[in-house]
Amino acid sequence: MNTSDKPKSHFHSHSPINADRTDGETEHPTEAHHHPSHETTEFHDKLAKIAGLQAVSALFKRDPHQVIRLYFDEKMKKSVGGFCAQMAKMQRPYRLVDDSELQKISGTVLHGGVVAAAVPRAVPDFDLENAKIWAQSGDPVVILDGIGNPHNLGAIARTMAYFGLKYLLISDHPAQASLSDAAHRVAEGGLELLSVYRAAGCARVCKRLQEYYRVVGTSLGGHAIEMGKLPPDQRPLALVLGNEEHGLPHDTINACESALVIPGSGRVQSLNVSATAAILIHQMAAKPTVHGPKQSVKQADNRTRGPQHRRRQRPEVKKP
């Protein structure tokens, strides 16, 4: 075949990824696209590698402009056609590669045949004013304080998305896992469906949240109760989950209004934290009408203002 007639690779020959491959190995039947001039090897290494069709699909749906490069194997060509069209529209490279290359790019054999190299997601600081708005809609909140395994973080995010929860806070605990590639892969797109915030000083955040939320943590202590036995309260729930080995820090559990436990047979001490989260989140989602959101915010405002600012009751007028 004449050189001029040969399909072009979507990367220049000086591309830092797979630069030793021939055009024939990387060709795709579309025109070539240029990648940004600032995209160096160091830049690419800092990108998040979102793997798996569900996770990549959710990323494209949330914000396709975050995707800088797209890689896929032969069996995923038809499935990623729409993504390739979006990449072409944005003039960003996408590439057909083999399994070994996908493993190298994603860092795992569990890549699912497609990997998006994307700008890492920013996690903004939590603002109490946001919580007031969430509470008005009766939306529960999940807080992670020291969940160290990114697979657990991803599994919890997947459970939250499955049951329709929207808001996740992650603490600044030294052991706390971040929104890593592994967390995104296990979440199967769930993280892209959540609003995620950084809760600096988790115990303090839990105390402040009590203006609008009933804050409950998990504990194996004797004072813990089942969720179904919580006394009535109009505020929506904020569930706090702790480290896989050590549980919640003392200051965080002390900042919670109640401690929850899931009773079992007693044959093993506890559940994995992601299993605990799944059971409790299901219970939270199953009874959305237990908590009256508008009333809870009004009550919270009353608690903040104090009794002197509450509306006085009109004296009862007896009819003759």
Keywords:
2 domains, disordered N terminus, elongated, 60s Ribosomal Protein L30, Chain: A, Alpha/beta knot, four-stranded mixed sheet, six-stranded parallel sheet, alpha/beta, 320 residues, 10 strands
CATH architecture of the largest domain: 3-Layer(aba) Sandwich
The tally of beta strands, per DSSP, is: 10
> Helix segment count?
12
Largest sheet: 6 strands, parallel
Helix content: 25-40%
Q: Return the structural class.
A: alpha/beta
CATH topology of the largest domain: Alpha/beta knot
**At the first level of CATH, what is the class of the largest domain?**
Alpha Beta
Strand content: 5-15%
Overall pLDDT confidence = 83
Strand order across the largest sheet: 7-6-5-9-8-10
- Which residue ranges are poorly predicted, with pLDDT under 50 across at least 5 consecutive positions? 1-37, 289-315
Distance between the termini: 107 Å
The CATH H-level superfamily of the largest domain is SPOUT methyltransferase, trefoil knot domain
Shape: elongated
Radius of gyration: 25 Å
Number of domains: 2
Short description:
The chain has helices at residues 23-26, 41-46, 53-62, 81-89, 99-106, 128-136, 150-162, 181-187, 202-209, 250-255, 273-286, 293-305, and strands spanning 48-51, 67-72, 94-96, 114-118, 141-145, 167-171, 195-199, 214-218, 237-242, 258-260.
